[in-house]
Fold this sequence. Notes:
This protein is α+β, with helices and mostly antiparallel strands. The chain is built from 19 helices and 33 strands. Strands 1, 2, 3, 8, 9, 10, 11, 13, 14, 15 and 18 form an eleven-stranded mixed beta sheet that branches. It has a seven-stranded antiparallel beta sheet with strand order 4-5-6-7-12-17-16. The chain has a six-stranded antiparallel beta sheet with strand order 19-26-27-28-33-30, with helices on one face. α7 (354-375) crosses α19 (689-702) and α17 packs parallel to α19 (689-702).
Amino acid sequence: MKKRLLAGPIALALGAALTVVPATQAQAGHAAQPYTLWYDEPAPDTNEGWETRSLPIGNGAMGATVFGGVQAERLQFNDKTLWTGGPGVSDYTFGNWDTPRPGALEAIRERIWKEGGISPNDVLAALGHKSDTPRHRRFGAYQSFGDVRLAFPDLPAQVADYRRELDISRGVAGVSFTAGGVRHTREYFASAPAGVVAARLAADRPGGVTFTARIAVPANRSATATAAAGRITVKGALTSNAMAYEAQLLVLNQGGTRTDNPDGTVTVTGADSVVLVLGMGTDYAPDYPTYKGEDPHAKLTTRVNAAAARGYARLLSAHRADHAALFDRVRLDLGGSLPAVPTDDVLARYGTDPAADRALEQLFYQYGRYLLIASSRPGSLPANLQGVWNVLEAPPWQSDYHLNINLQMNYWPAEMTNLAELAEPLHAYVDGLREPGRVTAKQMFGADGWVAHHASNIFGHTGAWDHPAYFFPESGAWLVLQLYDHYRFTLDKRFLKRTAYPIMKEAAAFWHDFLQTDPRDGKLVAIPSRSPEIGPTTAGAAMSQQILWHLFTDLREAAELVGDRKEAAAAGDVLAKLDPGLRIGRWGQLQEWKEDIDDPAETHRHVSHLFSVHPGRQVSPRTTPGLAEAAKISLNARTDAGTGWSKAWKINFWARLLDGDRAHKLLGDQLQTSTLANLWDTHPPFQIDGNFGATSGMTEMLLQSHLEVIDLLPALPAAWADGSVSGLRARGAHTVGLTWTSGRLSEARLTADEGGTVTLRSDAFRGGVRVTTDRGRPVAYTADGDTVTFRTRPGGDYRIVPAGR
Ligand code: FUC
């Protein structure tokens, strides 16, 4: 039976008003669970309800959000590969020019040398490609895949003991309520091992589950819906680019009856319980230049069938084991305790009860890790601006990959919070930018190597738009630093040699060609160069130069490690002549440009000239106190205001500037003014980088390792006087645990994967220290002020205890 689905947009209107009587935690028999977000009402069935209140689950490649409506349940779902735009649009150019523009770059450079700063509009008019009409027609946008809609005709509008929750430690969402004396429960999870979303609907009275299920999809695609043997299949192609998509929902009832309806829906009547298995796929492949793979049908069917054959209990236990293996690696205890009120109330009351505040901070911290586990698994695309979750056909900023901070920020917590393997999608994505990026480098700049600009899609868009924000050729250079950092955290030589190094080297090849000698002082500078999204286009803006200092410094180190002496020497030559982008200006600020033109009244959200404070490592109170002071002056001038991700970046900055109280103040600001009821970060609107940035910043407050030394509790705020953390990762392949009381380290625990010499720093070491193996055997060490240095053996476990503790 086939029926053309009504090609209407997802229903946005609020369903019939529901009256739900919430369950208190005590009534519902739940002790306050430190890792559970819970609510006493469904998310409204609107776009705003989705954004602010729906609860996300995901397995990296696909995601879903739970609304929890009683009579009308909605499970909105996504697959990261479902995008409009790209090569399926006949005039797609990867962002490159349609026709050659001889002399365009030279003319712009000449003007900059002559006039100093010029308008970014002029640069983009000369070097960008024409924006599309309608906007982003060729670039495309990430898409909502659709909604599973469940209609429960027998359930009343009024129910009791309602609870909707997401347990991030188990990776399971749930809805429960009592209607007519019957307890109804729904459970949802997205399994990475099985590659499906699974759900179980049950009632504590036999025969209590009756509903009709359908899949609804947005209007911008063709769609057919069929139902056969309890399987709903909806398939078609996007109008924009003919990308084929297919979703399957298998409805498996225990008891009662099940009917396949001619309109592609399935009705279950009087079942004891029902298992749902949802799978989806597209014909996208991450392969330049067609990005087209096989039709998703065969593999999807196999996947859904295999999941169904396993049975719900085994699917759930495999999911829980898989999730726990990642989630449980890090424990953070700030001494918090959640009050017995819904999470949105805890958030709204932040700042009024220290125990609740600490508990919310712990939850928010782990939520960042949860969201990465749910939106970035090896073998899938990286987390985009909304992770893997999007309800719209035209999402904000296309829900794309912004490369002038946002994608980078998504992965800041990966290494340090012990989720290193979840960065694989980023590595693969950056690798995938090389082929198209070579064409762009040649065409726009006549340069070797590869380049990418300010934003990209899943189809190798490496050119620049004619929009002033879009000229940012440093994107690739910044991204590859994170690949090298993966090596610094893991010491994985094979990864360095095979993956990171070739990509870094080729990114640097572009800069070897692009850098120019500044006639003013003979230094090498980027030109044109613009501090992201602010000010004029000049030569040698601070961020460009700082990123390049890190690129060539890392490249030289990496080249030495892999034995490429020629490249090490070439990187050294660049470094000798490179303008480092570090200057103190007329009001004591760290300059954002090579010229001293910073406006002390500027409060722009990007604080790009502090790149060397974070994520970079050129500026620190420990090594360059003068520059660090200047950075503080700049950062104070920018104020603590900003979008969600900007506040999150400022947590990282203040942590690196060793001001824990200020970092903590920014965390509080982010929670109070940039966090939605479902704890998603909001720019506004919802943008996930702020979640990841906050988790990174909180980690930087507890542990830093970017300066060769492992710095313990470098920016501990007064509010976190007592606590402990375990499982954090430090560069050099170390795992670190810390316990502190009254604001002072009482014990550090260190596991050295590789062995070697390690140096730890803590103020608490000044009064003496004891280093032992985990079995209590003394270890020889040298102490020097606030540092202690000792040799470790591969796999060795150590305890470091300050005197008097
Ligand atoms: C950058 C930022 C914006 C927004 C966008 C997705 O352009 O300047 O604030 O975060 O990315």
